[in-house]
Amino acid sequence: MNDCYCISSFYDIDLRRDYTKLDVPVYFFLGRYDVNAPTVLAEEYEWILDAPDNKIVWFEHSAHSPWINERDRFVEEVLACFLEK
């Protein structure tokens, strides 16, 4: 049996339908000007997600790569998510 997970199998997954409850915190780091990944999908998911903690962190000066465009703030926000608890 092949242990490789084919990327095409991901297209059948709708997190908003299939994974509405998670037992771990979930954080979304989104660039305000991302045209590659529709941020509205992350917003919809964050609204319905039942998790110990979940939030969206917006990067106002970024598109698809906030870890590149706003590197210092990205590091601060990632650390804050883990250090606040």
Could you describe the 3D structure shown?
This protein is an alpha+beta fold. The chain has a single domain, classed as Rossmann fold (3-Layer(aba) Sandwich). The protein has four helices and two strands. It has helices at residues 15-18, 39-48, 66-69, 71-83; strands at residues 26-31, 54-59. It has a two-stranded parallel ribbon with strand order 1-2. Helix 2 links the parallel strand 1 (26-31) and strand 2. The protein is globular and about 35 Å long. 5% of the residues are buried. The mean pLDDT is 88.
Helices, strands, pairings?
Elements: H1 15-18, E1 26-31, H2 39-48, E2 54-59, H3 66-69, H4 71-83
Parallel strand pairs: 1-2
Describe, in short, the structure shown.
With 85 residues, the chain is of the alpha+beta class. It has helices at 15-18, 39-48, 66-69, 71-83; strands spanning 26-31, 54-59. The mean pLDDT is 88.
